[in-house]
Specification:
Elements: E1 8-13, H1 19-26, E2 32-38, H2 42-51, E3 56-58, H3 60-64, E4 71-74, H4 81-90, E5 94-97, H5 105-118, E6 122-124, H6 132-142, E7 149-157, H7 177-181, H8 183-194, E8 197-205, E9 210-212, E10 222-224, E11 230-237, E12 242-248, E13 255-263, E14 267-270, E15 280-283, E16 291-293, H9 304-315, H10 323-342, E17 346-347
Parallel strand pairs: 1-2, 1-4, 2-3, 4-5, 5-6, 7-12
Antiparallel strand pairs: 7-13, 8-11, 8-17, 9-10, 11-12, 13-14, 14-15, 15-16
């Protein structure tokens, strides 16, 4: 079978808040062509398509029937990720999904197996680890700058997103909470450093069972919190090393973007793992302020992983933000939740192959196909 050539056709399912960030980038990346936007609200899909000069818009069924679409970008709510991805695979499309990969291990395994059986891919956000900020830090670690990575601390604390998000309920329900909403950025960074996790020991709490929307047309509306709003855990990695993590919507003092790795020869502070840029700082004992390393490489935003996936499809090589990595991060999050609920450690049995760092001169805004 002859492999297609040229830019890869893309269709976007989900025209909500996050779609702006994706479409701003995907419509300028030369290795992809956005052909269609779909949403349950067809008028919203049409508005986004018109805003970004995209020719097609309409229903999910129309998008999946489009013969030139090779990648479906799945921007639906977390509870719909597997259903939409499964439908895309059945239509012969590769998938890029927003995080999380799935909400439970069984559906995640089925999704991976379905893709493998069909010879398709189910790559998944976050793709922030492909940005110049985190990649600069990962290259420094790969080059031995801090010696052997031994321990890490990852920290995200805030009061919660209900003060600014106009429809925050899903962020406090199944598939949300700080663990599933924010955790993927930090945990993906940690497994990029240490490889697969093997055991977790965790605790959790819920500060308030009811919260109130603070902005937008529904300001003042109360909603129920159905998942923990704080998780803390100790992660032990299969290759040695450990990390302590806190993901919380319970702190009235915000601390975000903190991932620090201690090695045998130094300490490395990553930039915010929820961003694509930012400097990396290395502490080697010679300066209290450390040595700052500006980001080297592409500063592009969300959708970068879609461009990298498109190039991988054309080249017949594995994509870096792979489904296997995303499933392991899912397994890690589920294990943290289970450990907190049961009051005991949980052992993981999933794994993945770490991708090498992105070349420093790689840029999704440069045409390669």
């Amino acid at each position: 079978m002859t492999r297609p050539v040229g830019p890869v056709g893309v269709g976007v399912i989900g025209a909500g808040v996050i779609s702006d960030q994706y479409l701003e980038n995907l419509t300028v990346f030369p290795d992809v062509r956005v052909l269609f936007v779909a949403d349950l609200d067809v008028a919203r899909a049409t508005a986004q398509a018109d805003k970004y000069g995209i020719a097609g818009s309409g229903t999910v069924e129309e998008l999946l029937a489009h013969p030139e679409i090779e990648i479906v970008v799945n921007l639906t709510i977390p509870a719909a990720h597997v259903e939409v991805a499964t439908a895309a695979l059945a239509a012969g499309k590769n998938v890029w999904s927003e995080k999380p990969f799935a909400l439970d291990r069984d559906s995640g395994r089925r999704l991976l197996a379905d893709a493998a059986d069909r010879g398709l891919r189910v790559a998944t956000a976050p793709d922030t680890f492909l940005g110049a900020g985190l990649q600069t830090g990962l290259r420094l670690i790969a080059d031995g700058t801090i010696g052997t990575p031994l321990t890490a601390l990852a920290l995200m604390q805030s009061p919660g997103p209900e003060s600014w998000h106009p429809s925050p309920e899903f962020l406090f329900q199944t598939g949300g909470g700080p663990l599933f909403d924010i955790g993927p950025y930090y945990l993906t960074t940690l497994v990029q450093v240490f490889g697969a996790a093997r055991k977790v020991t965790a605790a959790a709490s819920t500060a308030r069972p009811v919260r109130t929307i603070g902005s937008g047309p529904r300001a003042g509306t109360e909603f129920d919190v159905t998942v923990p709003s704080h998780h803390g855990a100790l992660i032990e990695f299969a290759g040695g090393g450990s990390a302590q993590i806190i993901f919380s919507f319970e702190s009235f003092r915000s601390r975000t973007g903190f991932v620090e790795v201690n090695g045998s020869a130094g300490t490395l502070a990553f930039p915010d793992p929820n961003q694509f840029d930012g400097a990396t700082t290395v502490f080697d004992g010679t300066s209290d302020d450390g040595i700052e390393h500006p980001p080297v490489g592409s500063l592009s935003g969300r959708g970068t992983g879609v461009a990298e996936l498109a190039q991988a499809i054309r080249a017949g090589r594995p994509e870096r933000a792979s489904g296997e990595q995303a499933f392991h991060v899912l397994d890690l999050m589920v294990s943290i939740a289970e450990s907190a609920e049961r009051g005991e450690s949980v052992t993981l049995d999933s794994g993945f192959t770490r991708a090498p760092p992105v070349p420093a001169d790689w840029d999704p805004k440069v045409a390669t196909l």
